Model the fold of this input.
Amino acid sequence: MEIHKICVLGLGYIGLPTASTFATHGVRVVGVDNNLQVVHTLRNGGLHIQEPGLRDLVQAALSSGNLAISAVPEEADAFVIAVPTPFFEDKRADLRAVIDAARSIVPYLRPGNLVVLESTSPPRTTLDVLVPILEGSGLAAGAGFFLAYSPERVLPGRILQELVENARVIGGFDAPSAEAGCDLYRLFVRGEIVLTDATTAEMVKLMENTYRDVNIAIANEFSRLAQHFGTDIWEVIAIANRHPRVNILQPGAGVGGHCIGVDPWFLVEAAPEKATLIRAARQVNDSQPNVVADLVQRTLRNLQGVRIAAFGLSYKPDVDDLRESPAIEVARLLVQAGAQVTACEPHRPDFQAPGLAVLPAWEAAVAQADALLLLVGHRAFRALDPLQVASRTPARVAIDAVNGWDAAAWKRAGFAFHRLGDGKSAPTVPGGGADEPVTPSRGR
Ligand code: SAJ
Done:
């Protein structure tokens, strides 16, 4: 199909880069967001989200004259829905933004138009939720308008490159719809484009992220077992991963962000009795902040009034995104247990949370600390020289939840050093405990 004008609904982490990329590839784009603050910010040359290269891209799109920002949709050849799909308290998918966006298109839908849903959604959403809403226009899916599901699969921090270079899946309501989707994304996608049906494309996205979640869960569970048996998980993983068909991921503070910890629930809620492993993995990852807080508790014994400098709050290294961050959850648990936590998050110096002091510079965060806790492996934190840190803090205890610091170097600098999943460096608890390391048997 011929595409001269595109309407992108939702100007967040995916919609804004997508709208801007279409615009810089010579197509007229109306970017729509129902948050007036976002519309105002973008129209005035500002940016409400951070992503490397995004400022320049949006600027280029706006100054080309191809990108307009609006609070309401307009007639277009293609409509792309890229709104958030969070979950409710009970883990059911919250599709309200998808439903609102689809309804907002109905008055503008014309014969031969294409509608694409990009938002991660439970299986069958395109068929069971979108079709009935869009057919309210009087046009039939397939015969009257094209309809497809095409998930975004980009990595935060690398969105602009991956949007263009990654393979793209397009699941059509029918084969002509998938072809129409291909015509749309071919405007900028250089990666392979794979055509399939809508529900398969929905499953592809959910299974990719669930696969990762389950693999992170087993790494976290292995770390608990390694500690329990008095071994060092990081050594075990390094050795196991030399096997040509083994690739164990990294344990840590838990799973954060708006994708990996959310998407598996869409499968669990859609078929609870069939998704038992997926649910168990989610529970392992969700409880990981407690395991880290417990390690801190066992290391420092009584947390009441203890001053802890926490390194990192974002959901993963070297990003400014704090959504669902397990590091924040660990800090919250420590504050709840009576500790005074001062966090250092150079990527988000503006962040505030009740009971938590946040500083941009680590030097200030450690100045009054009794213990140091590494929660996020930002490059800048990994590169710290423990001798230099020792000269800036009275703390002589360092706890590493992500294997970002060199144990020997920190010990040489005078720190008692403890690491998540390392039964060899585990704190000994008076009277013993479930995770007390088992003394390795000698002899034989
Ligand atoms: N994590 C670990 N151990 C690991 C790897 C990650 O604990 O070995 C943690 C991270 O610290 C973080 C969380 O998991 O808290 C998720 O991080 P991530 O890097 O695995 O994923 P995201 O959420 O940043 O991006 C993912 C990507 N999906 C996959 O890698 C399968 C991306 O391609 C998707 O586009 C994105 O989710 C999305 O939007 O779905």
Observations:
- The pocket of SAJ is lined by residues 153-156, 208-209, 212, 216, 249-250, 252, 255-257, 259-260, 315-316 (CB under 6 Å).
- Residues 198-228 form the longest helix (31 residues).
